[in-house]
Amino acid sequence: MRIKIINPNTTQSFTDALQRLADAVARPDTEILAVSPASGPASIESFYDEALAVPGVLEEIAKGDREQDIDAYVLACFGDPGLYAARELTDKPVLGIAEAAFHLAAMASACFSVVTTAPRVRFMTEHLVSRYGFGEQCKKVRTTPIQVLDLARSPEAAIAKVIAECLRAREEDKAEAIVLGCAGMSQYRAQIEQEIGIPVIDGTVAAVKLCEAMVDMKLGTSKVLTFNWPRPELANPGRSLKIA
Predict the structure, then answer these.
(1) Domain 98-202 class?
(2) Residues 92-136: pLDDT tens digits?
(3) How far apart are alpha carbons 156 and 188 in whole angstroms?
(4) What top-level class would CATH report for the domain 2-97+205-234?
(5) DSSP 209-236
(6) Which of 86, 121, 142, 178 is deepest in the core (most CB within 10 A)?
(7) What is the Cα–Cα distance from 117 to 155, expressed in whole angstroms?
């Protein structure tokens, strides 16, 4: 099977890291294609950034169905930007890494906390927790004094701050697992888990493995109503999106 990981920002080092991570965990018969859109924000740290990223995400979904024979998609940003719109563009599985991580954290533990980046994204993350129905299991959303791009510029210092916040979540929140709230943290999951001594869930790995399971089960996106194809009269003829 072919799984396409879409990094909604344009920072290529993050995309390359996602490719390596997914290659390491995917089954031998799974091919991973990690991409960034041609245009969009360098990082996603606000609702404005998310809105800028969505057109590129949708272009990559359409291209995957049209040209690349993709079996499933992963949106590798913890805001899951454009997730529901992407599901309207394809009948293949489309998973956001936040949604995937929350589901696995709830199965691996009685309760969890999310450790993410700068304080500005706290409300955005709390909104996701609520939207996906994990308000009872999620003890707290914890932010850190780092920006997303710090994970590329000075990863050791940034991850040290993430680990410190994870330890506080374990002690103060009584969290039994940690969800990493940024795709830029993905490659450091094992290091963080070793340091804090409780399960750490990375949404990228969670989404890849869930995609494999869904493809095996022949379980795609339902087109009966909510995620039905976009209405053809709303398609923008100036764009390359292929509407069914």
Answers:
(1) alpha beta
(2) 999 999 999 999 999 999 999 999 999 999 999 999 999 999 999
(3) 10
(4) alpha beta
(5) HHHHHHHHTT-----SSTTPPPPGGG--
(6) 178
(7) 13
Q: What is the pLDDT of residue 152?
A: 87
Pull the structure tokens for residue 177: 């697992």
And the tokens for 14? Answer: 């993050």
Residue with tokens 């009269």: 233
User: What is the CA angle 185-57-45, rounded to 5?
Assistant: 45
Q: How far is residue 16's CA from residue 166's CA, in Å, rounded to a whole number?
A: 26
Parse the chain into domains and list their residue ranges.
2-97+205-234, 98-202
DSSP label of 169: I
Q: CB-based burial of residue 210 (10 Å sphere; 0-12 exposed, 13-18 middle, 19+ buried)?
A: buried
Compute φ and ψ for 113, nearest 5 degrees: -120, 155
**CA separation for the pair 191, 193 (Å, rounded):** 6
Q: Which of 128-132, 196-200, 230-234 has the lowest mean pLDDT?
A: 230-234
pLDDT for the residue numbered 238: 42
Contact 158, 182 (CB under 8 A): no
Answer whether 189's CB lies under 8 Å from 180's CB.
yes
Report the SS3 class of residue 198: coil
